[in-house]
């Protein structure tokens, strides 16, 4: 069988495109520019919101190119040159209320993410939420999940945030139907994500591929962590970062160098160009 040319490159951000200092190296920037000059479509695919990706969109100069972002772990797909949302899969505020009512005796916080703001219910943001807000460079804002005017609000995702031990205790109290009927993922120990069942990176990538009339054999995806798993399983040309855990490496066709060794640049040069 003739190997198909890679047309789209989907890149996770944290632990993949970014090194351990949270930077995109010049070598990686130039490699992505080279790929764009060869008409490869660059797609950032991240658990971050669009606002949390803006800095890197500017660095890579993606706004005026045929580029896309998959944001909020697949809740939104944006076409950057038109700034249009081409897919949205949100979650209702009533889910946050349900979770809060079952877990309010635990030392955790219910947080809700839209594309601009990190909302929380409670007295003040806990340490896990403050850390996430700092990384994403986003504002936190209190929201009354019981107030009438807020009942129509929808979010990209709802997070249970705190220590791993306290989150695990809380999960035992949540309705099993929520865990069954929604997409859930541990991305980091201090945060358990709950999203629309249609919101994961793989499903978003399928929708984008259909939109662009690209076959999955023409996609390369690069990632390192648990919320990349479905995306890496979906594509034929899957690449695990050298700093990935063994579960991620096991499901991937290729393994590249680490994020501190320009692993993304190495992978693109070796398997996509």
Automatic annotation (TrEMBL):
Name of the protein in its database record: Cof subfamily protein (Haloacid dehalogenase superfamily)/HAD superfamily hydrolase (TIGR01484 family)
SUPFAM superfamilies: HAD-like
PROSITE patterns hit by this protein: COF_1, COF_2
Top-level taxon in the UniProt lineage: Bacteria
GO cellular component: cytosol
Gene3D superfamilies assigned: 3.30.1240.10, HAD superfamily/HAD-like
Lineage, opening ranks: Bacteria, Thermotogati, Thermotogota, Thermotogae, Petrotogales
GO molecular-function terms, A-Z: magnesium ion binding; phosphatase activity
């Amino acid at each position: 069988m003739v190997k198909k040319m890679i047309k789209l490159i989907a890149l996770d951000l944290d632990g993949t495109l970014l090194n351990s200092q949270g930077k995109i190296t010049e070598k990686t920037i130039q490699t992505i520019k080279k790929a764009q000059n060869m008409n490869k479509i660059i797609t950032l695919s991240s658990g971050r919101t669009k606002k949390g990706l803006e800095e890197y969109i500017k660095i890579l100069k993606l706004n005026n190119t045929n580029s896309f972002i998959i944001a909020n772990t697949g809740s939104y797909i944006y076409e950057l040159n038109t700034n249009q949302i081409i897919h949205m899969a949100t979650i209702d505020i009533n889910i946050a209320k349900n979770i809060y009512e079952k877990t309010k005796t635990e030392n955790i916080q219910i947080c809700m993410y839209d594309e601009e703001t990190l909302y929380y219910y409670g007295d003040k943001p806990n340490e896990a939420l403050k850390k996430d807000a700092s990384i994403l460079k986003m504002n936190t804002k209190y929201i009354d999940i019981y107030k009438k005017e807020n009942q129509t609000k929808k979010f990209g995702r709802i997070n249970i945030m705190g220590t791993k031990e306290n989150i695990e205790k809380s999960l035992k109290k949540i309705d099993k139907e929520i865990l069954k009927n929604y997409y859930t993922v541990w991305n980091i120990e201090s945060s358990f994500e709950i999203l629309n069942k249609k919101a994961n990176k793989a499903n978003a990538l399928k929708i984008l591929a259909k939109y662009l009339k690209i076959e999955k054999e023409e996609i390369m995806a690069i990632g390192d962590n648990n919320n990349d798993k479905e995306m890496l399983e979906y594509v034929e040309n899957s690449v695990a970062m050298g700093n990935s855990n063994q579960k991620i490496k096991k499901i991937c066709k290729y393994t590249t160098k680490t994020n501190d060794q320009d692993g993304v640049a190495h992978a693109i040069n070796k398997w996509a160009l």
